[in-house]
């Protein structure tokens, strides 16, 4: 059986961020950043191409940070 795939093994095993064709100092979008975070650097297209889900995770992270800060300020004065 003959296949048309000829991928070097070193490019398939390691994380995507260390592959030579991944990032030539190009900017990545928010979905690629969150995909790399959730997949531990293994895949940059886990969340797809649309940026709405990436923006949702970014806003959720900001909301959790602001809520935690306000919670700590409010309950630190009660002691």
Number of domains: 1
Helix content: 40-55%
Arithmetic mean of pLDDT: 81
H/E element string?
Answer: HHH
Transmembrane segments: 56-75
Keywords: Membrane, Transmembrane, Transmembrane helix
Structure in words:
The chain has one domain. The chain is elongated and about 70 Å long. By secondary structure, it is mostly helical. The model has no long low-confidence stretch (mean pLDDT 81). Keywords: Membrane, Transmembrane, Transmembrane helix.
Name the features.
79 residues
Secondary-structure blueprint of this entry?
Blueprint: H1 9-13, H2 30-38, H3 52-76
Helix pairs in contact: 2-3
Could you write a compact summary of the structure shown?
By secondary structure, this protein is mainly α. The longest helix has 25 residues.
């Amino acid at each position: 059986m003959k296949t048309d795939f000829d991928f070097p093994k070193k490019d398939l095993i390691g994380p995507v961020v260390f592959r030579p064709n991944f990032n030539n100092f190009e900017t990545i979008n928010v979905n690629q950043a969150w995909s790399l975070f959730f997949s531990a650097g293994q895949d940059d297209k886990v969340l797809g191409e649309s940026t709405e889900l990436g923006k949702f995770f970014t806003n959720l992270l900001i909301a959790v940070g602001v809520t935690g800060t306000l919670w700590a300020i409010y309950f630190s004065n009660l002691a």
